[in-house]
Known about the structure:
- This protein is α/β, with parallel strands linked by helices.
- It is built from 16 helices and 20 strands.
- The protein has helices at 15-31, 56-72, 164-168, 188-203, 268-287, 300-313, 330-343, 353-367, 374-395, 405-410, 431-441, 450-454, 474-485, 491-496, 501-513, 515-518, and strands at 2-7, 36-38, 77-85, 94-102, 105-111, 136-138, 141-147, 175-180, 207-211, 213-216, 219-222, 226-228, 234-237, 244-251, 254-255, 292-295, 318-322, 346-349, 398-401, 423-424.
- The strands form four sheets. The protein has a seven-stranded mixed beta sheet, with helices on one face. The protein has a six-stranded mixed beta sheet with strand order 6-7-8-9-12-13. Strands 18-17-16-19-20 form a five-stranded parallel beta sheet, sandwiched between helices.
- Strand 10 (213-216) and strand 11 form a beta hairpin.
Amino acid sequence: MKIALAQLNYIIGDFEHNTQKIIKTIQDAREKGADLVVFAELSVCGYSPRDFLEFSEFIELSEHSARKIAAACTDIACILGLPTPNPKIEGKDLYNSAWFIENTEVKAIVNKALLPNYDVFDEYRYFEPSVDFGCVDFMGHKIALTICEDLWNINDNPMYTICPMDELIKEKPDLMINIAASPFAYNHDEERVRILGDNCRKYKLPLFYVNQVGAQTEIIFDGGSLVFDDSGMLLDEMAYFSEDLKIYEFEDRKVKGFKPRVHDAQNDIHQVHDALILGIKDYFQKSGFSKAILGLSGGIDSALVCALAAEALGPENVMAVLMPSEFSTGHSVQDALDLVKNLGCKHEIIPIREAASAFENMMKPVFKDLPFNVAEENIQARSRAIIVMAMSNKFGYILLNTSNKSECAVGYGTLYGDMAGAIAVLGDVYKTQVYKLSNYINREREIIPINSITKPPSAELRPGQKDSDSLPEYDILDAILFQYIELKKSSAAIIEQGFDEILVKKVLRMVNVAEFKRNQAPPILRVSPKAFGMGRRLPIVGKYLS
């Protein structure tokens, strides 16, 4: 039996696009001699459709598309993922299902049993968990077919009271196939290989695992589909961050032609770079846009976003707007100009002094003789937002937000100012990682000016301002934030590690108070195990301080 793993990039709700892509892949796999081609979880409609699943027409279109795909599945078999109605009176209306189609006929339907309900997942909101299990027979082989979480580590989640493979193994299957929608995080590939390999060792079965690829707004899927032998040794892994189709020959419970290999682990910054490029590219392509705009200050954050956007979209599709104020230094403007020259992107210089002064003069009767403070600083930031949004409206650009995770965490940003944007490129990237990414961008030649990397970071909203006037040094701040956000450590646990007690409590208080800002921020490209947004949902009004 020849098994093809189809690692594709789907568009949520674009049934015509997904259907044609799947049919074309079936044809390609058949021409290459495959007997079975396997697609990812909810491949027909895209993952995750969220509240689209509450529309009956969406479910009907999913089934209609699956039937159309089945009609094209001649002289070959395929496995599709789609939502299907639950015929039972009790429970949720839908199952998260896998159809096994052979020569145009739906021979088996497998429903997902373990529905993740943590971080970015919310499947229990929509789906009924399956309690029925059975293997699929094909070409003399018995296949244990599971869907994503069904083959994950259930020991750490007490909400799961049943293990699908413990039931399926009773039928003595010859192999496991798992269709998945497993999002990217910079530490997730190694965890994925370990857990899936453990399952192979536990059940003494080879595994074919297919993951999807592509970005769905903030969630990025990295692909990296995997094949293991029955001892849990990795035999092959498919491309990361790009579509791929591979065919494997399976005979006598063995995958022929492959020897055990070591997981091709990339360093975290390499992976984050590739994920952000894919996230930007897919956000624009799937939204029907092509041109990006951003404010370019000469600082490292906006420089990095500009470089990433130019790589993802092409420099000709990126507009960098330099908006110096009376407090901007000459070297900041020059650093920004050096960057656009290195990238070859478009740029405009629009000083904000006149606009900011006009607002300040307009507010004088109200502000009277009160001293210059954050109000005037934010007027500058909001003046810049007005400029880039005006250009967005006039020329059809989409605004990229340039705030990093450290700033998002402690509220070091201006609502309706530098926090504006359609998508936050660095919102899940700590400042210390921003430096590493910038050096990675410069790995072959200087693209981001060295001065942008080495100079003390500053918002340049008042004379001589530096970020360190308001925040701890970023290496200390990020270490505290990581413990609190990613690891969910209490203030006491963080202090026990040697961090200053007053500083820890100040930082955690800043994080909690800034929740109202984050709720008004743009969606954030998720690259870590715990990103702000849909994966971290906290009340805005609350007094809890860990």
